[in-house]
Structures are given as structure tokens and as C-alpha cells.
Write the C-alpha cells for this entry.
Amino acid sequence: MIAALEQVTVRFGALVALDGVSLRAEAGTVTCVVGGDGAGKSTLLRVLCGAVGPDEGAVQRPDRGAIGFLSSGSGVYSDLSVEENLAFSAAVYGLSPAETRRRAARLLEMTGLDAAAHRLGSELSGGMRQKLGVVRAMLHGPRLLVLDEPTAGVDPVSRADLWRLIAEAAAAGTAVVLSTTYVDEAERASAVLLLEGGRALVSGTPEGIVAAVPGTVTSSDARVAEDETRSWRRGHAWLTWHPGEVPDGAPDLAAYDLVAPDLAIAVVVASLRDELVAGGSGGGPQR
Amino acid sequence: MRAMVVKEMRQLSRDRRTLAMMIVLPLLLIVVFGYAASFNVSTIPTAVFGPDAALAAAHLPPEFSVVALDRHGDRAAAVTALRNGTAAAAVVSGPTGTAVLLDGSSLFVAEAALRDLGGAGATRSHALRVHLEILFNPKLKTSDIMVPGLAGLILLFIGTVITSLGVVRERQAGTLEQLAVMPLRPSDVFLGKIAPYFAVGILDMTVVVLAGVLLFGVPFAGSVGVFALGALLFLFVALGIGVLISSVSQSQGQAIQLAMMLLLPQVMLSGLIFPLTSMAAGVRWIGYVLPLTYFVEIARAVMVRGAPIGALWQPFVYLGALGAVVSAAATLRFRRMLAPHQGGGRRPAPRPATAP
């Protein structure tokens, strides 16, 4: 194990940003922290890399020199060129100029940034900046790579480039922990942690989470009135989560098609289940 | 337009620091500067030498305040007293008459002394027959005393205002968080921030002083080494203040406001324009807290009077102490900024980064 959070709670004044959250980052794995805006993803990652300390709980992490971090704003200096951004980071982490050149050349080529090596950070597109941020974070070969929404606002081709980088880092033995709002990205991860309101709703492997979805999920053409608080739209169909089995002989069973859960469904169900446990909320969920 | 006005009012009301500055600062400035803005010299520190020193001191006009009296002293002692800044006027009494030497680098004090004594070589009703002589700046040229001080003001402007934007830029660009998780010590960040500006500041200082000497004919009577030491110390303080301002500001606007708040009093209260001795005691102490006061003192003393370092130990010690305090405070601020995990649960929520 490279890093871990044990029952970590973080408060910003009256706001509880993280509430008793645990996470383990193993070598050679990718852990995805999934959640909506304000779920606590960035706070969790900042705790993990040491930018924020916990008010309660314990944190285990490698030395700062063995951590690579991409903050939510890409952390690229707009008035430095791509090469200069990397040179600064490399110097801070004590890489030799020759080693810096070798690593930077390979990573820039992998991400397609080699042609932009002399361009200023301000002259890069959003996607290029994100890629440069990831390259900068992994340039020194960290044992723990922490990436805050590395693919946010990035085009599909660049997303693929970024995931190739991430996969390569994990293959080299790095423990990668990243946050995302895209559930399809979480499906590629070794482990997933779903956050909502600072609390961990579910965690585990994507397959394990999907297998553990309780109840039944059905699909229908129209939203069913009695289940509307547990229904959400996917494509042209309405999906509905039934906390228990759909009873045989139910009058409207013919209107339902059973749906095999995937990770996206598991995430929604976890959220609905949490609301159910908490006593539910007014109005139907917006998924 | 109404919507625009309402939006601006709302934004302004959220920026409490700016609002407070806009309301409180004008009142504060007019009161402080009003009491400081005076060319009227009421006290002239005077050293009296020679066998008839006591008699000469007794006949001095009331504006002349005797700070030293030495019956065995001669003209050389009087020149030394003026050069070292012990006094702005020196009286040398003897059997052949009385000579009053004035320090031309204290322009307004020298002019006041001339007025009080009725002009060079004249006889006054105070029964004091005097021979007047102005040393160091005999023509009482304004440029001779302003240029050394302006060099400090220019350095202060560059050092404080421009440096004050450094950390705020990192904060607003979201790169400060990157620095926080990098293996950097707070002192690395502080020294790394000021080093480039330090180099530019040295270049600026050289250019400004050379321009003063070559274009305005300002004398450089003293040691270049002593001047350089004073300039480096002052530059270190100015840059440190800039970084400190930057570390407590949330935006570039706030940083500029704070920097200007510190710059304006230094222009008015450092002795650069108005003599410190002319200021009301209630505001004069502010001048003695500000670093430019001590650099102006060093620059004028070295360049115009050729004062040795021994005579300037007080401003040097003060600038050194101020440099230590400012750099320690800035490093502490960086420690807090770069290691927030030391804090408790009262920290503010993280601010979203904006595009740099």
C-alpha cells in the first residue's frame, strides 16, 4: 500500500467537507473518486497529497518528493513555456537536466505536446494544459500520483491520451488516485470510491460495486408515477430502481424491462439508497 | 445601466477591505499628511566648538538647539560632526571670529539656518558675528539631495509593488497549491520569489545612481561599498515587504492597494520631501518606522556628505533588523500557506482556481 486515509474528517468552518472517509491506494492501481460538484473529491485528494490536513482520522502517504499532484486548475504557469514548466518541476524534484530531457521528451511525445514544447502555457488549449499538468505531475516518477479531474473539459482524443498516460503510470507501479465526474472513466479503474456530501456511499472494484447493487432496475418508456422519486432518464428510456424484487404479478410488470446494472446505474442507485436511508427528499432525483 | 450599478455596488460591498480603504483611508491620509506636510524648520541641531563655545552657544538664535558643545574642538571636529550627521549646523568660535558651518545635504534646515542668521557673512542683532559656510551642497541644489532619496523611492516602488503581485498570481492561477505539495521549504519559496527582483533591483539602483551622477551632477563623495551595502539591505526589506503583502492578499487588486498604502506614507513621511524635524511629533514616529527613512538617511549621508559607515550604524542596524523581521514574517506566512495541514478546522474553504 502506498497511501491511505482512515476515517478522515475535514471541516471548513461549519462545512463538513469530508465525513469519516477511508481510502487505500495500492501500488500499480488506479483509484477513481467519483462524485458530483461539492461531493468532497478535491478535498479528499488534497488531504491525500498533504495540501489539507484532516481534523479527524489518519493519513498515510509517501514523502512529498514521491507525490505527483495535479490540482483542479491544471497548475500550469501560463507565462512559462511547456518546456519551462517541466524544467521547473523537474528541478524542484531534483531530476538531472539529462534525465529531465529524456523523460519530458517521451511524455510530451505520448501526449502529442512535443510540437508545442516552446509554446507558452497561455497559448495552449484547455486540453493541452490538462495534459501538460498531468505530464508535469508524473515527470519525476512519483509513487503516488494524485490527479484532480484530469479530464475535465478535455476533448475525447485528449482524454484517451490522458488515460494512456495514467495507465502507463499504474503499470510502472505508481498508485494513481484521480477524481472524475465521468462514470465511464471510473469503469477503467481498479477501485472506485463514490462520494456524496462528503460521505463515502460505496467503494470497491467497479465489478464488485455493480454486483452489489441492491434491488432491481427496470427500464420503461414512460416514468411510472408511483416510482418517480426513484426514476431517472437514460437516453429515451426511464430507468427505475426498486429497492426490493419487482413482485411477480404486479399489475404493470409488463411495462418494465429488467436491466442489468452497470457502474453508472450502481452510482445512481447508491445515491438513491442513501436518500432512502436518510428518509428521502422531496421531489424526484435529477440524474 | 441600473443593473450594472447594482452589480458593481454588490461587488464593492463584498470587498470589505477596498470599501474600508475608500472610506477610512482619505481621512487618515489627510490627517497624517496634513501634520507632516511642513517645510518650516523650528529646530536646528547644532554642535558648538572652540574656546568660546559656551559664549557662542548663548548667543545663538532660539531655533538653534545645541546638541554638542566642545571647547577643545576645532573646525575639523565641526566638519566631522556635520559629515556624520550629529548636527545640521556647527559653530566654531575662536579669537578670529565665529564660523557657522551648515550641512547642505539638510536642505531645508540649512535654508532655515541661513534665514535665522541673516544670510552668509552678515551680522545679526544677536551680537553674533558669523562667517557662514555651507558644506557638502554649497549651492543648496535640490537635485543633490533628492536624487539619492528618489533612488530609494524607485527601488521601493519596484520592490514592493511588483513583488507584491507574485504570490497572489500563484494563488489566483492555482499554482500555489502545486507549490504546497512540492518538496519546497517556505524559505525556498520566499528567497526564490525575491531573488530575480533582487537582481533587477540592483540593476535599477545602479542605473538610477549613475543617471543621478552623470545627468544631474549629484556628487558621490562617500564609499560605493557602504552605499551598496545600504542599498542591498534596503532592497531586501522592500522585496520582503512586497512578498509579505502578496502573501496576505487574496487578489492582485488587494495587493496593489496594500502596497500603495505602504508607499504613500514613505513618500510623505520619510524625510524625502519634508524634513522629519518639521513634522508634528504625533506623525514623525511613523517616519521612523518606515524603511525609506533610513535609506534616504544613508544615501544622502554617503553620496552627498561622504559619511563613513561608523556614523551610519543606526540606520544600518535598523534596516538589518527590519529585514530580519520582514523575512521571518514572510517565511512564516509561507509556512502557513504551504503547510495548511498544520491548521485546525477553522481554515477557510478552498478557493476555486481561475485560469492564469
Q: What stands out?
A: Chain B has two domains: 44-135, 142-341.
